[in-house]
Amino acid sequence: MCTHFSYGQNWLELLPGAKKLSYDERTGKQRLTGFLNFKYQGNVMFCDSAHYKEKTNEVWAYGKVQINKADTLNLFCDSLYYNGRTKLAKLWGHVRIRDREYKVTSDSLDYDAASSKAIYRNKGKIENITTNEVLTSKFGYFYPNTEEAFFKGDVVYKSDNLKLTTDTLHYNYLVHKVFFYGPTVGTTKDSKFYCDRGWYHVETEEGLLTHNAKIDQAPRIITGDSLFYAPKRKYALGKGNVQMVDTAQKVQFNAGHFTSDGNTLTDVLTDFPLIRIMKSKDTLFLRADTLVHLRDTLEKTLRIRGGQDVRIFQNKIQGVSDSLDYKKADGIMDLWGNAHFWSYNSELTGDTIRVFIVNDTLIQKAHLYPKAFAANELDSGRYYNQLAGKEIWSYFKNNELVRSDVIGQAKTIFYPEDEEKTDTAIVVKRMGLNRIFSSDIKVYLDSGEVVGVSYINQPDGKFFPMDQIDKEEQFLPEFKWHPLLRPKTWQELLKPREIIKEEEPKDSENKRKNAGN
Fold first, then answer.
1. Which tens digits make up the pLDDT trace of 251-280?
2. Lowest pLDDT segment from 116-125, 163-172, 275-284, 377-386
3. CA-to-CA distance for 77 and 82, rounded, in angstroms?
4. How many other β-carbons are positioned within 10 Å of the β-carbon of residue 410?
5. Residues 6+ positions from 86 with CB-CB distance below 8 Å
6. CA distance 435 to 136
C-alpha cells in the first residue's frame, strides 16, 4: 500500500519498502528508513533513509540516493537536499548524472529541476557512454533538455581523434560540436591547432579557428585571422593576414584569402598574395593578383602560376609581367605579356621572357622573344646601351647580367669607354656612340658596363664621337625604359601598382627626350 504526505499542491508518495516511519514534532520532519522508493513532484527517488519536512516541502535523502526523471535522466549521489518550492537540489558524494548518451560525475552538484540544469563547481567530468569522449573542467553547466553543456577552467576534451585544452567550452552534444573561447590548443592525428575562439565538429573533424588562429601540420604551418580546417575532405580556407610556411621547402605564402585543396593538391592565394622562396641568401619574392600553387603527393612545390600584376623581387633581380608560370621542378619561369626584367642597371623586355633558375633562386639565363629589347643605363640616365632583335638570350652569374646574345635582325647602340692613365689615377672616358646592325650580336658586360661586342655577318655600323652624336641615332626605335615599374623593395609588392602605371609612360618619354643632354 502506498502512503501520501501532502502539502498544498505538493505531495510525496511513499512506495512499498520503507521499514520504519517516525515524526519529530520539534523539527516537523518525518523520518523514513530502510530501502526507500517514493515519488516526489513526479520524480521517482530511491535512498536508504530520508527526512521530509512537509511544511516547507524539503527533502533530505541519504545513502545510495537515486532520482529518476521521466525515464530520461538519472541522478546518483551519497546524500541530497531538495527544496520542493524552489525546485533546487544539492547533491554530495560520488555524484553522477546520466542521460541517454552522457554521464556527468563530480563530488558535489547543484541541480535545478525546473529548468533541468545541473552545475558542478569543484571539478567534474562528462563522458560519452557509447564512445571514448571525455571532458573535464573545474566548473560545468549541464542542460539535459537541450543536450548542451558549458565548461570553464582548465577544460580538457578528449576523443579518439582529438585532444582539446581551453579556458571556456560550449558543447552541443546533440550535433557533436564544441565551441571554445579563450586560448585553445587542439591536437589531432596529423596536426595541432591554436586559437582564442572557434568551433570543432568531433564527427566530421572540421573546425573554424579565429583570433590568433594557427594550424601546425608539419612541415606546413598556417596562421590567419580566420582558418577553416577540414582534414577528412583535405580542405582548408584562410581569411585575413593568412600565412603558410613550409619549413622543409623554405617557402612562405602570404595572402588576404587562401584556399588549399588536398584532393587536387592546389593552393589558391588572392588579396595581395605573396610567395617567398628562401633557399639562398637572396630570397625570391613572387606576387600577383592571384597566385596558384600546385604540389606533388609529397607536398613539394611543382608549379606556381600568377595572373595579373605579376611582380618579382630579389636583391639583384626584379621583374614584372601580366602573368607568370613557374615550373619549379624544371627550374623554368615564364613571364607573359608586357614582361620586364631588371638586373643591376639593365632592363630586359619582351612579349615573353623565359627565366631559367637553379637552386630555386639563382638566375642562370633568360630568353626574350619575340620583340626582344634590352637597355643598359649609363651615367645616371644620360646615355643608354641598347639591344634589339627577334630574340635575346641573356646569361647571368650570381644574378648579375654578364652576356646577351641577340639573334635575328640584331641592333645595338653602345658607348665604348677608354682608360687614360695620369700620374695619380686612371680616368675612364667615353669615346662616343657606336650604332651597329647585324644578323646576330653578342654583348659582354661587367658590373653593368659593356666590355665587349661580337658581330656576325657583315655588320652595318656608324660611330659618333661624344661631341658629334646625332640625336636621331641616339635611341633605337624599340627603345623602352620603365624605372617606375621596377620594384625597389619587396614591401612594394604588397601595394597596388595602378598609380605607377599612370605615371610611367610620361616618365619614359622624358627619359627619351632628356637622354644625352
1. 999 999 999 998 999 999 999 999 998 876
2. 275-284
3. 13
4. 26
5. none
6. 84
Cα–Cα distance for residue pair 140/45, rounded to 1 Å? 24
Residue count of the chain: 517
pTM for the full predicted model: 0.79
As a whole number of angstroms, the distance between CA 53 and CA 290 comes to 76
174 — pLDDT class (breaks 50, 70, 90): confident
CB 335 within 8 A of CB 321: yes
Residue 319, CA distances (Å) to 311, 335, 428 in order: 6, 9, 31
Cβ atoms 406, 392 nearer than 8 A:
yes
The set of cell numbers assigned to 383 is 646615355
Scanning 314-448, the segments in alpha helix (DSSP H) are: none
Say if residues 184 and 173 touch (Cβ distance below 8 Å): no
What whole-number percentage of the chain has pLDDT above 90? 50
Classify residue 496 as left (phi > 0), alpha (psi -120 to 50) or beta: beta
Phi, psi of 13 (to 5 degrees): -105, 115
How many CB atoms within 10 Å of residue 237?
18
- The torsion defined by the Cα of 128, 134, 140 and 144, in degrees rounded to 10, comes to -10
- Other C-beta atoms within 10 Å of 254: how many? 24
- C-alpha cell of 353? 621572357
Q: Residue 390: which region, alpha, beta or left (left: phi > 0; alpha: psi -120 to 50)? A: alpha
Q: Is 381 strand, coil or helix?
A: helix
Per-residue pLDDT reduced to its tens digit, 306-354: 999 999 999 889 999 999 999 988 999 999 999 999 988 899 999 999 9
Return the closest-CA partner of residue 336 out of 302, 304, 368. Answer: 368
Kindly report, residue by residue over 466-508, the tens digit of the pLDDT.
999 988 889 999 999 999 999 999 999 988 875 444 334 334 4
Q: Specify whether the CB–CB gap between 34 and 17 falls below 8 A.
A: yes
Contact 7, 55 (CB under 8 A): yes
Which pLDDT belongs to residue 2?
Answer: 42
Supply 217's cell numbers.
601540420
| Cα distances (Å, whole numbers) of residue 187 to 181, 233, 247, 306 | 16, 18, 20, 34
DSSP three-state, residue 72: coil
